[in-house]
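Rotation project, supervised by the postdoc (A.L.). Task for the rotation student: set up a whole-complex structure prediction and record inputs and outputs verbatim in this book. Inputs entered:
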Amino acid sequence: MNESWKSYPAGGFFDELITPQGQPRAAARGVVRLLQKLPGNEMAERRAAAELAIREMGISFTVYNEAGNIDRAWPFDIIPRVISARQWQAVSDGLRQRSLALNHFIDDIYNRQKILADGVVPADIVLESTNFKPQCMGMSPRFGVWAHVCGSDLVRDGDGRFRVLEDNLRVPSGVSYMLENREITKRVLPELFENYSILPVDDYPSQLYQTLASLSPRERRRPCIVVLTPGIFNSAYFEHAYLAQGMGAELVEGRDLMVADDNCVYMRTVDGPVRVDVIYRRIDEEFMDPEAFRPESLLGVAGLMRAWKAGNVAIANAPGSGVADDKVIYAFVPDMIRYYLKQKPLLASVPTWLCMREKDREHVLKNLDQLVVKPANESGGYGIMVGPHSSAAVRRKFARLIEKNPRNYVAQPTLALSTAPTYIDDKVEPRHLDLRPFILQGRETWVTPGGLTRVALTRGSLVVNSSQGGGSKDTWIVEGKA
Amino acid sequence: MTMLSSVAERLYWMGRYLERAEDSARLVAAYNHLIMDIPRAAELGWDVLIRILDAEPLFYQHYRVGNEQNVLRFLLAEQDSSASIPFAVRWARENVRTTRDVLPEETWEQINELHLYVSDAAEKSVGRRNRQAFLEEVISRCQRVNGMLSSSLPRDHAHRFLRLGHLLERSDMTTRLMDVGTGEILKRNGTHEAIDPLIWTSLLQALSSFGAYRRMIGPLVEAQQVLEFVFQEPLLPRSVAFCLAEIRAELKPLNNHEKAMRTLARGRRKLGKLQPEHMSREALHAYIDEFQALLADLHDAITASWFQPDTP
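Outputs recorded:
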């Protein structure tokens, strides 16, 4: 066995590739056997090859600090994560169901608000949320779909069960890294692909194109689609450029667009104004249109909301979609599934205490050292307290925060997140991970086979965000047995 | 396929900065030769380079005296002065970074290498020992990028706007170079006519056109003939006439080109009016100034027509 794999600790957390008895799981057998058989330095050599490929392919993300913006090479672990197709099918069905229900909910909220009238979801938590945008009332986008691109974060608990941790419905990112991770693995571990039937991921840009094209207000063979980016200093600019190129769409900034007197959106080109049919928006809605939202925004396009409400342009995700992307609303998604679809939820979520409810709050305050506390409304892993890893001072601070603004906090049990073998220095060690699949919804619904696996590279850490030292892995959905 | 105005603008500037880096290197290299050839009495100063580039205010913010050391540091090593070679290279690179998707794949790699070379080598190149090698390397790396682009970039809008920037910058730098020869900028009176042929020869060399001049005009280097050759020779790729003709060819197929075409026509008429044998040094210098103002108008017309289009 390759030196680096010796003494891999089995047991403890649920491990995705290795059983508690130290044997590879069925779907992962080929990968593990091959890597364990690599002679001497080859693990290190393959990793060096991956790092070189990343530099050559120019895969980077931007980190902000006092010294300015730095483009950092993408942190990648060469050992893929393997999931069987049969298991994935169930997750995929659950994600599809969830995304349908969420879109029903958003459409209902901005129209008849039946679910509030029926008391299934308390009206005040929706209508008083900062994510509820009254500007969107009365809109009904095509197919009743608001969140066309949804990135849901999944984790596996101590029993290996997939659970949804949150749904990102505003501007979820990371999909380009999912695609690049596969490219890197193909380059550095090509022999793995010989004996496996791995579901391909690389048609994502064309699926995204079809989803967006189905939204076009004008019937045209090739609608004009643009990707709206905040600009080259945004941390996800690489991805914006990648997707625009993959779809053959224009990558635009706010100043490239304008809304004319006819309430249509045009892009400024050297041949004069060209009408835009669909905007794939990678800019927060707050900054999207200074006329409708923050007046000081320089990134947006004045009049965009007007054009959208007049039905002259489709925006994905639709403004206002964030109303369902809130950690308080999250707790009600199973109820939404039962309410709108008359179905049982297929995918588990995580038990959630809402601090706005007196009984829940008491429980949370009493058990701060065991719970994970999250602000209702932040992303990127910011403002989170992990109870068992926190100091007494931090817990006191959170207790004050919760009492001051209970609506803004939820708490969940600290999950025993699954691990997977990860190559750290010269040893393979278990590290915690999560998974972000992407769900596309337009005329049809489509789920990525797998998604972006993020891994916390620090021992014991549960924080997987790349801005905070997380890495990533290629994710395989494999058919049959290998 | 149309093109976003903002992308067109970046390509145009990429073309300008790349040409500016190359031409600045040519200018300094030629001057470097010249100054070694001429007798001390001529008292040519290095600050001439600063005047050619219209960079006096900027220069004197940073330096008190226009001596060799300071001028070359300003032009070759100063990262942040807009007249320096590293500055031009950095902005050429920045404009490629944000237009990578419309350029051949190697463009980014090559311009990135040029940038790395200049940032590494610039500081050491201020002294006389490494100077010439540095300038030659910059010139040849710029040529490599241009050669790659001209052999693989489709002749669509990307090529067109890149080329417009390139040609406009080249016309501008060429006329600046000719201004050295008129003598006005050298601030000397007509007492050193003996060194004139040396000056004109080095100017032709800076344009890689000395050989062409000898073949097409003859071995005697004379002010009037050099001026006519460099401004009006339609077959010489670095001549102003050639650049303007090419600009015209690029503008013609564009929509909304009326304003730029009118400005260009003014430039071409002006070009026809150059008659060096009937013009004094002062008149020539004034002529070149006016010509540069015309090029600035052309730049404005291009900006207004394609980079800042009006609302419909």
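Student's summary: The CA atoms of residues 50 and 56 of chain B lie 6 Å apart.
Supervisor addendum: Chain B has a mean pLDDT of 89.
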